[in-house]
Design brief:
The structure is a single chain. The chain has three domains: 65 residues, Orthogonal Bundle (Arc Repressor Mutant, subunit A), CATH 1.10.10; 122 residues, 3-Layer(aba) Sandwich (Rossmann fold), CATH 3.40.50; 136 residues, Rossmann fold (3-Layer(aba) Sandwich), CATH 3.40.50. It is built from ten helices and 14 strands. Strands 4-3-5-6-7-13 form a six-stranded parallel β-sheet, with helices on one face. Strand 1 and strand 2 form a beta hairpin. Helix 1 crosses helix 3. The longest helix has 17 residues. The relative contact order is 0.12.
């Protein structure tokens, strides 16, 4: 992130003074001449600062000779951050809820944007300047280093090294390993791993590694061949995947997946193929697409907590000069409903 110029420095000082109550609502704000003298700045710089304060709702510039008045020392929002990423999936709705609640506590607002992928660059260009002061990025890949605002990646598994970049995710690898441990402890050895992640989803790669490393640790044979990385968008694709996988491993008793979407698609395909009861399925995300009595074992990622901690990390980056963000903050995941998996006898 670039070093703040003089305009930004003066703007932040005056904004903080207004918020602290140094200038009462309705009183006269210092003249441009006084501000020029105080900060040793040019008239054009001070004029730009007062224009920005006016646009943010702090002051109102009067007509000739009437001076500038303090309009609102605590305008809402105090800051505006952008969320750029998916919104249609219930998982992201939970994450955005956590973001919004934390933002409201700090009198900030969040602008939620979910454009088509080919418009991401255009949106980044639009939000790189006021009134935006930071970005929460989800599943859009890495933001260019030239983007000047602080950025926190949510649920991506990145460990950004650049200044002004942070990351909050869940413990994907640990959660996957714990899921595999529980299944193996119940006597399952004929296990498959299925995934349909894209190359942008570092977090799901971590889940797959967690599954496979745990299987290797317990001496399960042919681990690499037991991993099926396929595009599954509909029941027909799921049935084809099951037929292919079971042709190679006909004694399969458990299938671990890296998302609930995939787990339920495979589960319902297995029912259509009359395989239900023979194979247990586990998901990742705890979205429970069925009634609770039929919900599959899964890994709870706590997306509300990811959103909450992500906003708080971004807020510190925006408001605390010199703050060095954590390269990666992990929210602990937990396995749920694994008591529903039948043991192998």
């Amino acid at each position: 992130m670039k070093k703040k110029n003089k305009t930004d420095q003066i703007l932040n000082i005056l904004r903080d003074e207004l918020r602290s109550g140094l200038y009462e609502d309705g009183t006269r704000f210092p003249s441009e001449h006084k501000l020029m003298t105080r900060f040793g700045a040019a008239r054009t710089t001070i004029n730009k600062v007062t224009s920005l304060l006016s646009s943010e709702g702090f002051i109102r510039r009067g007509v000739r000779g009437s001076g500038t008045r303090v309009l609102n020392s605590s305008p809402f929002p105090r800051g505006l951050v952008a969320y750029l990423g998916p919104v249609s999936h219930p998982y992201y709705a939970r994450m955005i809820q956590g973001i919004q609640l934390s933002a409201a506590l700090k009198e900030n607002a969040v602008c939620v944007m979910s454009p088509m992928e080919n418009l991401h660059s255009l949106v980044l260009e639009k939000i790189r300047r006021p009134p935006f002061c930071g970005l929460l990025a989800v599943s859009i890949g890495l933001v260019p280093d030239s983007f000047p605002l602080p950025v926190v990646y949510l649920d991506n598994g990145y460990e950004p090294k650049g200044q002004g970049r942070g990351s909050v995710t869940c413990s994907n690898g640990t959660g996957a390993a714990e899921a595999a441990e529980r299944v193996i402890a119940l006597g399952h050895r004929e296990i498959l791993v299925c995934s349909n992640y894209s190359e942008l989803e570092e977090s799901r790669k971590e889940r797959v590694r967690g599954f496979l490393d745990t299987m290797r640790k317990h001496g399960i044979r042919q681990v690499e061949k037991r991993f099926f990385h396929e595009v599954v968008r509909h029941p027909t694709g799921a049935k084809n995947l099951l037929r292919e996988a079971l042709a190679q491993f006909p004694k399969t008793t458990a299938i671990l997946t890296d998302s609930d979407d995939l787990a339920y698609t495979l589960y319902y395909a297995a029912r259509d193929l009359k395989l239900d009861g023979r194979i247990c399925f586990t998901g990742f995300g705890n979205m429970a697409y069925s009634s609770d009595s039929q919900a599959l074992p899964s890994v709870e990622q706590h997306p509300e907590e990811i959103g909450d901690r992500g906003f708080n990390e971004l807020f510190r980056m925006i408001t605390e000069p010199g703050y060095v963000p954590s390269r990666r903050i992990e929210v602990e995941s937990e396995i749920v409903r694994f008591d529903r998996i039948p043991p192998v006898r």
